[in-house]
């Protein structure tokens, strides 16, 4: 699976290079972004930018937003897993008090064991 990921990333990099080479004249054109909110002093303009710079900045902004989203999602999932483990421990203690023989350690270690590669 690791080789497939490397192959796909390499293919995307190759496609990106071909895109830039084939469109180099268009990407060298300058653009100036403007924001006019129709208020008295609310006219904003950027400095003239080449189109390739704008493309890279857009990509970087998207990458940062995706990174923030996945970090938030990862933290939230860790909190849920922690809460579920605490619930398992509480239920095991209640079952033990009720006189039922429970081995929560075997359940926890089975879930945490790494999968063997064949």
From TrEMBL:
Membrane-spanning ranges: 51-72
Occurrences of domain Lipopolysaccharide assembly protein A (ranges): 38-95
Highest taxon listed in the record's lineage: Bacteria
Keywords: Cell membrane, Membrane, Transmembrane, Transmembrane helix
Pfam family, one: LapA_dom
Lineage, highest ranks first: Bacteria, Pseudomonadati, Thermodesulfobacteriota, Desulfobaccia, Desulfobaccales
Alphabetical list of InterPro entries matching this protein: LapA_dom (IPR010445)
Cellular-component GO terms for this entry: plasma membrane
Protein name per UniProt: LapA family protein
